[in-house]
Specification:
This protein has 120 residues and is mostly beta strands. It is 7% helix and 34% strand. The chain has a domain at 9-91. A five-stranded antiparallel β-sheet has the order 6-5-4-1-7, covered by helices on one side. Strands 2-3 form a two-stranded antiparallel sheet. Strand 2 and strand 3 form a beta hairpin. The termini are far apart.
Length: 120
């Protein structure tokens, strides 16, 4: 099975919005580039998925430097179910995220891992 192409931002946000309970001091991002099937890296761990999945990242300390609490999740694109969640200590990469990532939830407008005006 092939991994599907980048998905629509509104669908990605909808799927990511079901993963974590809203926290006022956290920002949730989702990558619109599906991963899998097969081995998928989330944080420092690898997970096996049967279907393509989206990576969801909750930044629990927006504005903090490199090492801080965060949580990753994988959402199955076929079922919409959360495959797994994993606590971690760093964002997906140092600096800004690639343009495939969008903000899924940002109740206090603290998102700082995407360039300004880049959130479709």
């Amino acid at each position: 099975m092939n991994t599907p192409a980048r998905i629509d931002a509104s669908l990605a946000r909808s799927l990511a919005g079901k993963v974590f309970e809203e926290e006022t001091d956290a920002v949730v991002y989702v990558d619109r580039e599906p991963r899998g099937p097969g081995t998928v890296s989330i944080g420092s761990e690898e997970v096996q998925v049967e279907h393509p999945a989206l990576v969801v990242f909750r930044d629990e300390a927006p504005g903090a430097n490199w090492m801080h609490d965060c949580t990753y999740a994988l959402v199955d694109l076929e079922t919409g179910e959360v495959v797994t969640t994993k606590a971690a200590e760093r964002p997906p990469q140092f600096g800004l995220l690639p343009d495939s990532w969008v903000v899924a939830a940002d109740p206090e407008e603290r998102a700082d891992l995407l360039p300004p005006d880049s959130n479709p």
